[in-house]
Design brief:
This protein is α+β, with helices and mostly antiparallel strands. It has helices spanning 7-24, 28-34, 39-47, 68-81, 83-103, 106-117, 236-272, 284-315, 323-352, 362-370, 380-390; strands at 122-126, 142-146, 149-160, 167-178, 184-192, 198-200, 214-225, 229-230, 274-275, 278-279. A four-stranded mixed sheet has the order 1-4-5-8, with helices on one face. A four-stranded antiparallel sheet has the order 2-3-7-6, covered by helices on one side. Strand 4 (167-178) and strand 5 (184-192) form a beta hairpin. Helix 4 crosses helix 7. The protein is globular. Keywords: FAD, Flavoprotein, Oxidoreductase. It holds the Pfam family Acyl-CoA_dh_1. Its cofactor is FAD. This is Acyl-CoA dehydrogenase.
């Protein structure tokens, strides 16, 4: 399908860019060095309305004034100056807000969504474990219903927005029984921050995304009311998978922001740095690499916003699109853009030469940040598997 960003989307892009350049860009390097999560700036993003772009007005969201494409625009522009803050926004909406919005009861929505949508609080989603993630059958975290309470025991890892000072909720998948075929019954349980028995372990020392809040979690006799079941019992993993298609497009938008940053930085440096009396941008060896960045950017942006437009069309009830077509588009966008982002950071670092290896230049930070884009919310291998299946190939 054809798409074109509207004038309203472009105006919104400009407002987010101005915020990002004024409030995030000047501090991103320091936050990265200090592994600092700037909760106050995240809440400023909330006041700008960035966390409510896909939420209804009754919960404080943008309603008809927002859409999924707007969220992707915001993620791209934030990610263009700081990938850590970009993933904070992406995960807060895709993994924190959306599951509650999609599967929660009205009481759950009224309880949790207003603060989350306002960006004053954050929520995380715990799926991955030391031995489980895509392999749902290997999930070891358990939740047993005892006297009207879910008693949760187990551990989760790599959970974004799970231990910050403004985190209010973590939803986790857990075994709640066994199916007739012997497979585990997995359900989603909402666990408020500070619940006795929930331990937020020390933050990870990561390769990149240093300003993003990421922790392992452990649960020992952690008790929450029965009403904290999110969605249908036994459908926890399926519910999580349903949120991943949107998340893949949002991660693609984050990758687009990374590629745009690489192009901007490389163009500026190639015009300023001189060798043999001329800017290095006059050398074909450099100019051709920067031209490749433009090609990757154009293709990545087109794939990402085509998929976002398909998502918005489905949300509006379009009968000319299928969910399967959107899933395929989401996987294609995620695979191409994230692998392109990794390549783009390598090219930008090469353009900068020895300076690209120095932390005082932002290309070094983008180089470190990019790799995880190929891993989070479905690895490149998973995307290839999904794309192959979408083509009718019986890939295991």
């Amino acid at each position: 399908m054809e798409f074109e960003l509207s004038r309203e989307h472009e105006e919104f892009r400009q407002s987010v860019r101005e915020f990002a350049e004024a409030q995030i860009a000047p501090h991103a390097a320091q936050w990265d060095r200090e592994h600092h999560f700037p909760a106050d700036v995240v809440q400023q993003m909330g006041k700008l309305g960035l966390f409510g772009l896909t939420a209804p007005e009754e919960y404080g969201g943008a309603g008809e004034d927002g859409d999924f494409t707007s969220l992707c625009v915001a993620i791209e522009e934030i990610g263009r100056v700081d990938q850590s803050m970009g993933i904070t926004l992406e995960a807060a909406v895709g993994l924190g807000i959306n599951p509650v919005l999609t599967f929660g009861t009205e009481e759950q929505k009224q309880t949790w969504l207003p603060d989350l949508v306002a960006g004053q609080r954050l929520a995380g989603f715990g799926l991955t474990e030391p031995g489980a993630g895509s392999d749902a059958g290997a999930t070891r975290t358990r939740a047993e219903l005892v006297d009207g309470e879910w008693v949760v025991d187990g551990a989760k890892q790599f959970i974004t927005n799970s231990g910050s000072e403004i985190t209010s909720l973590v939803t986790v998948t857990a075994r709640t029984g066994e199916r007739a075929d012997g497979r585990p019954e997995l359900s989603a349980i909402m666990i408020p921050a500070g619940t006795p028995g929930l331990t937020v372990e020390k933050a990870y020392d990561k390769l990149g995304w240093h300003a993003s809040d990421t922790h392992p979690l452990s649960f020992a006799d952690c008790r929450v009311p029965e009403s904290h079941l999110l969605g249908e019992r036994g459908r926890g993993y399926a519910q999580f998978l349903a949120t991943l298609d949107d998340g893949r497009v949002a991660i693609a938008a984050l990758a687009v922001g990374c590629i745009q940053a690489c192009l901007d930085l490389s163009l500026q440096y190639a015009g300023e740095r001189q060798t043999f009396g001329v800017p290095i941008g006059r050398k074909q060896g450099v100019a051709f690499q920067i031209a490749d960045l433009q090609v990757m950017l154009s293709a990545s942006r087109a794939l990402t916003y085509q998929a976002a437009a398909m998502k918005d069309a489905l949300d509006r009830g379009s009968s000319s699109l299928s969910t399967a077509a959107f899933k395929q588009a989401a996987a294609v966008a995620k695979l191409y853009t994230t692998e392109s982002a990794v390549t783009a950071t390598r090219i930008a670092t090469q353009v900068f030469g020895g300076y690209g290896f120095m932390e005082e230049y932002p290309v070094a930070r983008f180089y470190r940040d990019a790799k995880v884009l190929e891993i989070g919310e479905g690895t490149s291998e998973v995307q290839r598997m999904l794309i192959a299946r979408g083509l009718g190939l019986p890939v295991e």
